[in-house]
What does this fold into?
Amino acid sequence: MTEKKGVTLKIYVMGKGYEVPSDLTIMKAMEYVGYRPVRGAGCRGGFCGACATIYRLKDDYRLHMALACQKTVEDGMYLTQIPFTPVRKTVYDLDELDSSGTLLLEYYPEIARCVSCNTCTKACPQDLDVMDYVQAAIRGDIEQVTALSFDCIRCGLCAVRCPAEIAPYQVALLARRLYGKYVLGKEKQLDKRLRELEEEKLGEDVVQLIEMDVGELRASYERREIEE
Amino acid sequence: MSSLIEGYPEYMRESIEAVARSRDRRLKETFPLIDLKEREKALNQFHPDYKTEGKRRVRLGPNKGDLAPTEVADLLEAHSLIDPREIDLSTIDLDVDILIIGGGGAGMVAALWANYTGAEPASILIVQKLRLGDANSVMSQGGIQAADRPNDNPAIHYLDTIGGGHFTNDPELVRALVMEAPSILRWHEELGVVYDREQDGSMTTLECGGTSRKRLHSCRDYTGLEIVRNLRDEVENRNIPVIEFTAAIELLMDEYGQVAGAVLYNMETQEYHIARSKSTILATGGFGRLHIQGYQTTNHYGATADGIAIAYRAGARLRDIDSVQYHPTGAAYPEQIVGLLVTEKVRSLGAQPVNKNGDLFVNPFEPRDVESAMIIRECYERKNSIETTTGMRGIWLDSPMIEAIQGEGTIRTALSAMWRLYNRFGIDMTKEPLLVFPTLHYQNGGIVINQRGETRVPGLFAAGEVTGGVHGRNRLMGNSVLDYNIFGRKAGIAAKEYAEKVKLGKLTLNHVAKYEELLTEAGIETLRRSPMLLPDYRGEKTVSHALTVL
It folds into this structure.
């Protein structure tokens, strides 16, 4: 990375201070000062949750949560990364389950310990209503859990902060899978298409295209109708 | 003092207002699609792939004489990370039937299908350089193509795919892609993947660049995330062994010339392990982090083409390795997110690309390479672009149109990832357009495979972005998620069948020693070593003063 000119500010990586350009993300700032992470960097685009970060600001008692690849540095930021969260995942055979929401309590009984403190929601770098979906999970409302948790990237910050030691994102994953498999279920038009394929009705047209010379193929391509 | 750059700088206001003023008119306007001849002209003049600079002919190995981007040629014309004489092959640390290198989409799909078809979980091993699932697969936003609607069929999908790839795709691979696509959707339903549905429960489908039917199935704009987290959960439920933060740095072969596993490298303890395996699947993904031609990239941290480098030493052949996909719409502003993906789904839902004057200059649904070429032309030939504070040029993607066409609130639900990304940096895409420029997105070519996912080297299989042929010289949106599912499945099944029959001989690294001789014969004098494993973004000051002491 080329050295940048212009406004700089001071950040503290695990307590150690560095001057960095003001328009960098936490991840890029850490690299700028010399880190080359093995852990703590993944997709770098806000989708994988590998770069969960906790920081405090000067004269602020609160802990803030962010993704290092999605948060611009601020002056006086004291930060550390939480690149791994030890959580329990229940092993299950999805084929043997059903749409009953009580499964969530059965597989993750600790959700009943939720004290509705909302710390999970405050911790979520995706701004999801985590506590609300934990409450929905207790009620067995898998549709609601799916809707509220859908954008979860599984960074683990909610699990780190929960005083009841719940790992909300694991519970949500099970709820979404149950909802997808047993509530949305198998779509009818797809059934029809799969039957047509099984009866080998649609392969011949593809073979015809494969056997065309490039000139014919180009002409067919140019002639094809485009759906409005 | 706040360091946040919120919204757009004042000097861009005039142009943003011009875009807003022309919006009502443009809602009724379409810019025509261009024909094949015009496409070729635009590509030749403006697409980075069609420039002669930035590439060179590879001087050794199976593709000797073929063009490759300089950055890829550098990896091929490089020494191994290991000296074969220093590696102890007499102790086997891990002994399995199916070794899968890479734990992204293709690798996990391969593992699951090897298991479904009878391989014991303990006979499989996934090694992954980052965490399981940290890959380009998790970042794919738009969706997956499958010809399952009544007005669509696999032949139309075939034609769209092969035309988009400039008729250079491997026809048999495309046939497998389009014929088996609906069965992947069914498998996903069984895994519990939550695809977008209409009120009546039918699948929602959208159009994308270069397709002639609405064939794209999405999960909001987190399609990859939704599929990958389900795959990962299933790998864990089935107790398939995974070792994270461990890269394969060379393939192992046996005395009969068969691939027989890999030399693994623990990225944290820096020790090597010998993993012997009856069959080996490469699912190492693409090359975005090589920043070909200096482009920013949408890709994940580990997209450094490791699989290409180690497979080439073992004798695998490459195709179309000089073909790079630049996604038409990468973020050009703000600086913090430059190069990140603005999903094509933004156009699928109605946003038009417009220039600084608020005028149309391209149809939103050209194939990606053509769309990119037209945007580059608008920025650099016609100079109808906006320049950012760091000197980058871009054009507007008029996202507020989505709300006008699809209804208020669409962006927050159908494009929640995009909305969140921009909102974090003070831009409300429901009200203001997005400044975009093409960004390095996908490796179109790669290792040659057949319909079973076999490479030409016995015992070596490959699937996903590391392979070539499926997409020819340009991939369509929604075909890569489909690709890693189809060919991950094929490679997993074929590798399992192969492992049941093969007899391995004595392990060797002779191919690495021989490659060293080829380097000498070709007169290549270099200090470069490959695979790269991770890019290096450390500041110049640190690098120039670096010492290796501990």
Remarks:
- Residues 80-323+444-508 of chain B form a domain with the FAD/NAD(P)-binding domain fold (CATH 3.50.50.60).
- Chain B touches chain A through 93 residues (CB under 8 Å).
- The two ends of chain B are 39 Å apart (CA to CA).
